[in-house]
Design a protein that fits this description.
This protein has a four-stranded mixed sheet with strand order 2-1-3-4. The protein contains six helices and four strands; from the N terminus they run E-H-E-H-H-H-H-E-E-H. 23% of the residues are buried. It is 42% helix and 12% strand. By secondary structure, the protein is α+β, with helices and mostly antiparallel strands.
């Protein structure tokens, strides 16, 4: 599998992540998080592979998250419902996501990326 950067081009954090990968000559394919939203199957696989709790996959600072009042609703939803919700709208997913054979990185923290890539 090739490295995959799932990002939103207007997001400044995503731009920093892309620049980091380019500056460090780390090969990757790009995937626009809204035009090509990850599927339920992909999200389930990454959730399992990463061991990260599902709430970390949500873009809690996003307008859509706030609009849907997810802070109140998420605790009462099943994991399946949460995955379906994430797959329904790319703007709900925390970005960027960097998918490699070994790691699933959510958000961009340069120190973490340096250690795990």
């Amino acid at each position: 599998m090739k490295n995959r950067l799932i990002w939103y081009p207007k997001c400044s954090t995503c731009q920093k992540a892309k620049k980091y990968l380019q500056d460090n000559q780390i090969p990757f394919e790009e995937q626009h998080i809204v035009e090509d939203t990850p599927t339920k199957e992909e999200l389930e696989k990454w959730l399992k592979q990463s061991g990260i709790e599902i709430k970390k996959f949500f873009n809690t600072s996003g307008l859509k998250y706030k609009e849907l009042n997810l802070k109140e609703k998420l605790p009462h939803m099943t994991e399946k419902e949460k995955i379906e919700l994430l797959a329904s709208n790319g703007m709900l997913i925390k970005r960027p996501l960097f998918i490699t054979d070994k790691n699933i990185l959510i958000g961009f923290k340069e120190k973490e990326w340096r250690e795990k890539i």
